[in-house]
Design brief:
This protein is an alpha/beta fold and 241 residues long. The chain has nine helices and ten strands. Keywords: Amino-acid transport, ATP-binding, Cell membrane, Membrane, Nucleotide-binding, Transport.
Amino acid sequence: MIEIKNISKWYGQFQVLKDCSTRVEKGDVMVICGPSGSGKSTLIKTVNGLEPFQQGQISVDGTSVGAKDTDLPALRARIGMVFQNFELFPHLSVRDNLTLGQIKVLGRSKEEAVERGLHYLDRVGLLAHQDKFPAQLSGGQQQRVAIARALAMDPIAMLFDEPTSALDPEMINEVLDVMVGLAQEGMTMMVVTHEMGFARKVANRVVFMDHGVILEDTAKDEFFRAPQTERARDFLARIIH
């Protein structure tokens, strides 16, 4: 589904990604973890072209992300993206946030867009809030709306960039519960997170990064049982403690 080959990226003279390679099969749930500044968020944003890269290749369902003739808006319409800070339109109601992309990008009628949007709003348990504006919702509710908005576009895969990092602790589980449900339904997912409980519960692969390098790319059970690098062992000991 997603193949990342030898990706390198620089910000000026600073190299933020160094020869990164991995692949995500259909139905995989890959958790990308590591210390702050390790390149996790940058890597996941290269998958749908939000971050350009200078070397390497990325393909999503056979489409080359970096090719000059690739229609990136069309590609992004097929890959759901959920950010740290929700990125909802503050001046639009929840219902309009759910329908705008469907109408403008996918060309759906307003009626069909509303039907699909409300279906996924119900899926995340917020149907009663369809007429509210983002500022009237808690952080956890806003993030669940953002997930519903991404799902309404019928993505082939979902990317999550630290989706719980901006939430109060009591709101984290309501978002993770939705993500666990998606994983159990077979959604292909790449998730940048520090939530190791989530990783243990639903991931089948774990990628560990530090200083722009993928140090480990292994099955979830192997990563938690016996990480291969000293850096990963130290990270796990600190974060699980």
